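Hey, can you fold this one?
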Amino acid sequence: MRITTPLLLTLPLLPPSTLSLPTPPASFSNRPGIYANTFDSNSTRLPTLYAGLSDPNMYGAYFCTDTNWGGQCLWSQRLLDYCVTLGDPWLDSISSFGPDPGFTCALFETPACDGDDLELAYPGTPFLPGVGWNDRAQSFRCWRT
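Sure. Predicted structure:
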């Protein structure tokens, strides 16, 4: 997403309450919509994330570069039915993937959410190699189930 200069110039004119964002737990980074988290890589359970998703058009997905929720991990908050194209370090590198409760996601081998896909409902899987999808995802899309 790109924010244009005119939009940036109008931000100081908005009241402070308009610019406030929900506060994630201290274990997450402070970037809105994307929260990095460390997780015990010896566990096969998807971590419980408290993001305060109050918008019914949003969901979260948690994914990691290693199996069993290890390596670099990210919880990403996105719009429903929106194609998320992965970038570094996630492109062709995801080995664990799980959507939030009540959601299903499809991983795709292309950056445009088309072609071969793998659908995963909550809690997802800590072991994408077991279903033939290790390091294959280039994009994903999620929906409410």
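The radius of gyration is 16 Å. Let me know if you want another pass with a different chain boundary.
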